[in-house]
Amino acid sequence: MMASALSALYFNRDRFDKTLFNWLQASILITIVSELLFTTYIGVYSTANMLGHYFKIVSFYCLYKALIETGLSQPYSLLYKGLADSKESYQALFSNMIDGFARHRMILDKNGHPVDFEFLETNQAFEKLTGLKEVAGKKVTQLLPDIESDPMAWIDVYGKVALKGEPARFESYVTSLKKWYSVNAYSVKHGEFVTIFEDITERKESVNALFSQTKLLNTTLAHIGDGVISTDETGCVAFINPAAEKLTGWPRAQALGKKLEQIFKVCRKNEEDEPTCKEAGTDFSYKDQSMVLPDEGMLIHRDGTGIPIEEDISPVTNKDGEVIGRVLIFRDITMWKKFQKQLQEANEFLEEKVAERTLTLHQTVEHLQKEIEQRIKADIRNKEADQELQFRATQLRALAGKLTMAEQAERRRVAKVLHDGIQQYMAAAKLHLSGLGRKIEDPQLRGMAQKIEETIGTCIQMARSLSADLSPPALYRGGLISGLRWLSSRMQERHGFRVTFKSEIDNVSLPEDIVLLVFESIRELLFNSVKHSGTSEAQIRLKRSGERQLCLCVQDEGKGFDLSEISGFNNMQQGFGLFSIQERIYLIGGEFEIQSKPGHGSRFNIFIPYEKEAEPVPADDEPADSLNLCVANCESKHSKKDIRVLLADDHAIFRKGVFQSLKETAGIKVVGQAHDGLEIVELAKELNPDVILMDINMPCIDGIEATHRIYQSHPDIKILALSMYEKKDYARDMISAGAVDFISKGCSSAEMVAAIKNAVTVSQ
Question: What's the pLDDT score for residue 619?
Answer without folding.
Answer: 39
